[in-house]
Amino acid sequence: MSSEESRRLDTIFIVHSRTHPEVIGMSARQAARSLGFGDDYLEAARKLYLDDDGYCYVAGGIMWEEDIRHLIKYPYCAISTDSWTWAREPDLRRPGIGPHPRAYGSYAKVLGQYSRDEGLIRLEEAVRKMTSLPAAFLGLTDRGFVGQGYCADLCIFDPATIANQATYGDPFRFPKGIQYVIVNGVVAMDQGKETGSLSGKVLRHKG
Are residues 144 and 131 in contact, defined by beta-carbon separation less than 8 angstroms? Predict the structure, then answer.
């Protein structure tokens, strides 16, 4: 096993297994050892998929924490996620469906861990990287700032308490410290509770 392959085993996590719930939240390496396969993660994966009739799910990536900590400080690095939100827990028997904690936790992790706890970037800079900077990249001229003529997209959070709570084992947990979310001037989150508002819109590049 190459060093790169070995390293990757620590970034792949088990997020669903009906027959082996004890390995949910474990990395591929931890799961293999827990199931008695040592570092032979391929045999461990084979057992999981056979036992679960093909419906065992993993999540992960090839990004390293040290890279994120370096890139996040670059002035023109915007903060985003390639996940999406879920209205409910997905049907895990549908092929290709598997939750990832970044859907609920990416931005809170930046604000809480990287900005407040580790001091990698100032809070104001973290907010800029989530709002006006990506809006500028996408040509959205009426979003990204708070001001007259801008759409009222606001997230009101407590910088002292905001934190990601989503994990690979439990990815459907809202962050701590967010009390209100306003989308296009309509309250979508009120005192930490969803209102059911559907005021979001499809946004297109304006050239």
Answer: yes
Q: What is the DSSP letter of 175?
A: P
Task: Write the pLDDT tens digit of every residue in 101-156.
Answer: 888 899 999 999 999 999 999 999 999 999 999 999 998 989 999 999 999 999 99
**Sequence-separated (6 or more) residues with CB below 8 Å from residue 64:** 7, 11
The secondary element (H helix, E strand) that includes residue 29 is helix 28-34
Number of separate helices (H) and strands (E) present in the chain: 7, 6
Report the length, in residues, of the chain.
207
Neighbour-count burial for 21-40, b at 16+ CB within 10 Å, e otherwise: eebbbbbbbbbbbebebeee
> Percent helix, strand and coil across the chain, each rounded to 5?
30, 15, 55
**Can you give the pTM of this predicted structure?**
0.77
How far is residue 196's CA from residue 177's CA, in Å, rounded to a whole number? Answer: 20
Question: Which secondary structure element, helix H or strand E, spans residue 68, and what is its range?
Answer: helix 65-71
Q: Is 78 in the same domain as 22?
A: no
For the chain, residues with pLDDT lower than 50 are: 93, 95-98
Is residue 88 located within the same domain as residue 179?
yes
Domain count across the chain: 2
Domain check: are 91 and 136 in the same one?
yes
